[in-house]
Amino acid sequence: MTGPRRVNPLRHRDFRLLFWGQTASNFGSNAVMVAMAIYITRTTGSPTDLGLILAAQTVPFVLLLLFGGVWADRLPRHRVMVVTDLIRGALHAVLAVLILAGVARVWQIAAIEFMFGAAWAFFQPAYTGLLPQTVPEDQIQAARALIEGSWNVTLVLGPAIATVLVLAVGAGEAFAADAGTFLISALTLMEIRPRVRGAAATESRQSVAHELRAGFREVASRPWVWVTIAAFSLVVMCSFATWEALGPAAVRDVYGHVGVFGVLVALFGVGSVAGSLLATRWHPRRPLRDMLATAAMWPAMSIVVAVGPPRGVVAAWMLIAGVQSGMFMVIWETALAKHIPPDALSRVSSYDWMGSLALLPVGFVLAGPLAASFGVRPVLGVGGGIGVLAVFLALIPRSTRELTDEPPTERMPEPDVQPSSSRARSA
Predict the structure, then answer these.
(1) pTM passes above 0.70
(2) Which domains does the chain have, with CATH numbers?
(3) Dihedral angle at the C-alpha atoms of 332, 8, 75, 213, nearest 10 degrees?
(4) Is-contact 192 321, C-beta < 8 A?
(5) Cα 99 to Cα 35, 36, 172, 332, distances in angstroms
(6) Closest residue by Cα to residue 11 from 19, 22, 1
(7) pLDDT tier, 419 (very low <50, low <70, confident <90, very high otherwise)
(8) pLDDT tens across 194-223, in order?
(9) Measured CA distances, 318 to 202, 271, 404 (Å)
(10) pLDDT at 21 over 60
(11) Buried b or exposed e, range 118-151, using 16+ CB within 10 angstroms
(12) Quick one: CA dihedral 118, 272, 348, 216, positive or negative?
């Protein structure tokens, strides 16, 4: 491990704009998910309705991610994000009006969230590709860590704020506030002047299908990328899905109150914030090797809850697992930014997101029937065990174990980082 590096990405104007704009947007996004759950529960009382709405958002997101990656690599990424932020803000503004007018129906909400998920699929790959363009190369990890830390803070505080807002004021106001955060994000993105990374984009473009295949080759040619994606696809299906679906019931059975589940999730979130901040200063020489060697703590938390140790033990495990999770996300995103050609980063990111989430619906569908047949705690524990095994399988490729913190030697020299006002917009 190298020594600590004194860097401060917030000194750079473009990163400050990205950081504060996305922090505001993330607060709204994380709050509105809880606002949606409370609103549907109070109006229809149907878990099926809520599941339909969540699926309506998730399905187009997963299906369109690859196309979002292509267009994020074709066009200026910050402009793609501006358009998709304005679309998402407008959609939730319409939903706020429908709720405030008392005429919102489940099918209308599902339709709005379907379009929201489609826009999100174009935003996310552009976001991943833009971040390294807002700081010098040697500050990418620190910038990624600050962004991840901000996300984790909003993940902890957003739901609490949403609960108070919905119960004290109303769901319509919550969605209106969320629409406002997308406007804030769009306005900050309009002011960003991202630097050029890698070779300049050529004027001629291949077909979308050709560029999808080119993105796939970037993934397939790197075992450390595709094996890690495949491993976490299993982790998400077997561990995350069962934790979300069965965790509350398991905690209630073991510790006597479902409220303990919320405390454990909060502890995990606090740990994630701490892990993200630690990653601003920690630069392991073999990043994936070191992170994957401890990443099993995350899926193993399902095993811990299924076994049912004293509350203090499970609380400490959740906190430490959160620290590791926060650090891993930063290290992984930084590795992609440093080792993937800049003009293909958004496409590779889209394959990463799609591959990781592809089996999530399968896990949600299977968790309930399996628990009915074999019991909640056995299914939760076995799911966690499969996730632990998958993490260790990700260490098999030699390229995973030997990946360094330094970018490939053939990467073009670092461009001069000039003041934002004198830099040209990326083409």
Answers:
(1) yes
(2) 10-195 (1.20.1250.20), 210-406 (1.20.1250.20)
(3) -20
(4) no
(5) 12, 11, 5, 40
(6) 19
(7) very low
(8) 888 765 444 456 788 888 888 899 999 999
(9) 48, 8, 29
(10) yes
(11) bbbbbbbbbbbbbbbbbbbbebbbbbbbbbbbbb
(12) negative
- Predicted confidence band of residue 182 (pLDDT cuts 50, 70, 90): very high
| Three-class SS of the chain | CCCCCCCCHHHCHHHHHHHHHHHHHHHHHHHHHHHHHHHHHHHCCCHHHHHHHHHHHHHHHHHHHHHHHHHHHHCCHHHHHHHHHHHHHHHHHHHHHHHHCCCCCHHHHHHHHHHHHHHHHHHHHHHHHHHHHHCCHHHHHHHHHHHHHHHHHHHHHHHHHHHHHHHHCCHHHHHHHHHHHHHHHHHHHHCCCCCCCCCCCCCCCCCHHHHHHHHHHHHHCCHHHHHHHHHHHHHHHHHHHHHHHHHHHHHHHHHCCCHHHHHHHHHHHHHHHHHHHHCCCCCCCCHHHHHHCCCCHHHHHHHHHHHCCCHHHHHHHHHHHHHHHHHHHHHHHHHHHHHCCHHHHHHHHHHHHHHHHCCHHHHHHHHHHHHHHHCHHHHHHHHHHHHHHHHHHCCCCHHHHHCCCCCCCCCCCCCCCCCHHHCCCCC
pLDDT tens-digit series, residues 241-294:
888 778 878 888 888 876 777 788 778 888 988 998 888 888 888 888 988 988
Average pLDDT, the chain: 84
Q: How confident is the model at residue 97 (pLDDT cuts 50, 70, 90)?
A: very high
